[in-house]
Amino acid sequence: MSDSSAEERPSKNFLEEIIDKDLAEGRHSSILTRFPPEPNGYLHIGHAKSISVNFGLAAKYNGATNLRFDDTNPVTESTEYVDSIKNDVKWLGYQWKDEFYASDYFENLFEFAIKLIRDGNAYVDDSTSEEIAKLKGTPTSAGSDSPYRSRTPEENEDLFRRMRAGEFPDGSRIVRAKIDMTSPNMLMRDPVIYRIKHVHHHRTDDKWCIYPTYDFAHGQSDAIENITHSICTLEFMSHREVYNWFIEKLDLFPSQQYEFARLNISYTIMSKRKLLQLVTENHVDGWDDPRMPTLSGLRRRGYTPKSIREFCSRIGVAKRDNLIDVSLLEFCAREDLNKISERRMVVFDPVKVVITNWPEGQVEQLSSENNPEDASTGDRSVPFSREIYIERDDFMEDAPKKYFRLSPGKSVRLKSAYIITCEDFKKDENGTVTEIHCTYHPDSRSGSDTSGIKAKGTLHWVSIDHAIPVEIRDYDRLFTSENLADEEGDFLEYINPDSLNVIQKAYAEPALAEDVPGHHYQFMRKGYYYADKTSSKDKLVFNQTVGLRDTWAKINK
RNA sequence: UGCCCGGUCGUCUAAGGGUAGGACAGCGGUUUUUGGUACCGUAUGUGGGGGUUCGAAUCCUCCCCGGGCAACCA
Fold this sequence. Notes:
With about 550 residues, this protein is an alpha/beta fold. It has helices spanning about 5-10, 15-25, 45-60, 80-90, 105-120, 130-135, 155-165, 215-225, 240-250, 270-280, 295-300, 305-315, 325-340, 550-555; strands spanning about 30-35, 65-70, 100, 120-125, 175, 190-195, 210, 230-235, 255-260, 340-345, 345, 350-355, 365-370, 380-385, 385-390, 410-415, 420-425, 435-440, 460, 460-465, 470-475, 500-510, 520-525, 525-530, 540-545.
């Protein structure tokens, strides 16, 4: 293909091609999509993909997207979830056109069912769920008709109205669409469209004791709203036939369903049921535990909406099953964070360094840039004194050739400060280094270095007298298996016991005490960090969003 | 083994009969007062067999592999 034709037809995903065609052929003049969460859990990054697809497509084609809660099963749903979902969608940066609930349509849906019944397209079945399951057949063998299938429309309507009136107990009767018990599609074998549940609904209170099923509610809700493209995940593929059947029999707006492959990420789970289990069984600290793939978890961990949107755009949309490498998510986080994070120095595992030729009691305020990627963030002042902390990792008694940090006789640059040379060190009886003695080179001050000394390594550090204690929470993947779907047995067996590593007392430069909520930081040579929701002036707590790429760790392996 | 989907670098995703490209991951460099960033370079792929065609990832066919479907969940 030539360059010019590539410009004429930039690569599009299959949904964009469908929309192009629909628009070109005049099927629709504009598009309307919807994001239809069930309010029975918190949104996770898989939902972010769906949100990105639905809202992204609408934005691209100058259409709009409705937020519609699929609240047809009051047993598991609640307003807590509704609120968190709305909050998460907004946080991601999307704005819906209208906010609807499937429960807004309960009256319409009831009338639709009446019409089906009157047309001989639905009937009330008194069978038990076991009996229904038995007559349903199997994927390889046809089902057979229920003994109640031939009731008259009059009898069916009477029974259905009495179901609504609360005359019958839960499970005693259901309404089924009369389609085809021999269909190769199991879902077409007279699917249940209404069931009796004498339960309180978070929006309609106790008005209803019968509730429509997903199959009876979703397509009709789409049609009522004039949704042009109803985009869902692959597992709903075989529901499409049912979806179309209702729209046809009820003569509604011809919404069309399209399916894409849901997001899977290595080393994580995306099942709401399993996520809920992690929460209820306290394997994690709530839905917003920073290790959770929930949007609230990612937010608490310090992921930005932008990085998540970028991730969703990079993974693409297609119909084949996929397992996205978690490193792509991390890449997207670093890419954004690198540009917006202010740098700070924090020593996680300190070892004391004494600058023997620095006068006792003398403090020099040095200047350090807040963000080398963004000069507009200016500089901050960092105090330097005779006694400082550096990372224990940054000193080695016997250093290999390629180690260019501190070791006896070697020199390093202290970031934004001076070059120091290691003259001596002390160890305790266990062989642990307790103190390192160095001399500094007065003419090597950062920015005005005339020493001519070449230091290969640069270390972060904090002045002991000025250091403030902070708690650091480092995270690793929540699971030890790359692809949980491939594993046999309980997914809980694959929980990574080392997914949380708390450093109770790390030492930070004083500038960090002025932490502003919502600020993202890069702790130099460590990673990106974000204040936890529990962080306070009295006790600063930071969550690791993602570590810096660590080439040295790789070499060292 | 009934029906429905799907199979392109390790992982995602393009190429719509005409040079298999991009990203992440990997590897190797350059720059660097973060072993970060940035930049440069590099290896790896069309599940298989038959066809159609001057030419096939693309069309046909058979096979293989993966996923979904038997909730009064969504």
